[in-house]
Known about the structure:
The protein is mainly beta. Helices cover 13% and strands 64% of the residues. It contains 1 helix and 12 strands. The strands form 3 sheets. Strands 1-2-3-6-7-8-11-12 form an 8-stranded antiparallel beta barrel. The two termini are 47 Å apart.
Amino acid sequence: MIKRDYFILVFFCVNLCLAQKEKDTTQLKSNPILYADFLIGGSSGEAEGLTFGFDINYQLKKDLITFRSTYVNEKNRESGIAVILIIPAFIGGDSMNEFALLYGKRFIFNSSAISVSAGVSTNVLKYTAYKNNIAYKYRKSYIAIPFEINFNLFKGEKRPYRILYGLIPIGKPTSFGKSFGIKFFGSFGEYNYYGLGLNLGFGWHKKY
Length: 208
């Protein structure tokens, strides 16, 4: 009787320890899906030219929330020099600047993901009109409906972070990593535009 009770006690303790270990392992694997992307590409439509962008993304289950800043350098004879900052800026020439909040769905595969999003934005269009060969500067603010479709590649499992074109690993395996992909984007509003560009990003791209 004592031996049987002892066996039951040992069995209970072993299962408790295994359950705790499994719980701890799950907690260690858990990380937020949070990442940032930098965009460079081109736009067409009523805002046409070289395009820079920056966005921050947070995913919960399949729901994706995105804050996006997009800057279009329109071509004209007074265009200046593009400067990339945390929020893209431009000196001289015509331009379109957009700040947007988007909601969408993101579907994760082993080492890639596809997302589709739309939302609302505030846009500022700066343009030049010529009368009698004299340039007049105008500024127009309006509300628009931004959209985007993304396809991104990233690491499929935890690995050490690598520098120098991925040749040199640093530290222990981590869920933090880089990404590369393409973005189709644009907005519908008083002035419509659409574009295509390359995304370079970093962050936590899935649950590892």
